[in-house]
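Backbone-to-sequence.
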């Protein structure tokens, strides 16, 4: 298990910041890969590819992914 990323909410919104969502999607893809969970690996890897920083494009200010929020909730209730 890797170090659990931080949770940062967008100002005035319930969504995650783009950077936070990107880090969480990478983390969850890595966790799914280590658990041989192909379905979740593909899902979170695709999210990470969509959120990856790109030259000339700004990072999203607020991101809403219900599947990502659900997984974050699971990790924060374990602690």
């Amino acid at each position: 298990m890797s170090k659990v990323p931080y949770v940062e909410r967008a100002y005035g919104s319930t969504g995650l910041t783009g950077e936070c969502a990107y880090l969480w999607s990478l983390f969850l893809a890595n966790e799914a890969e280590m658990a041989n969970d192909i379905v979740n690996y593909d899902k979170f890897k695709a999210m990470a590819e969509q959120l990856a920083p790109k030259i000339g494009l700004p990072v999203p200010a607020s991101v809403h992914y219900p599947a990502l929020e659900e997984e974050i909730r699971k990790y924060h209730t374990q602690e």
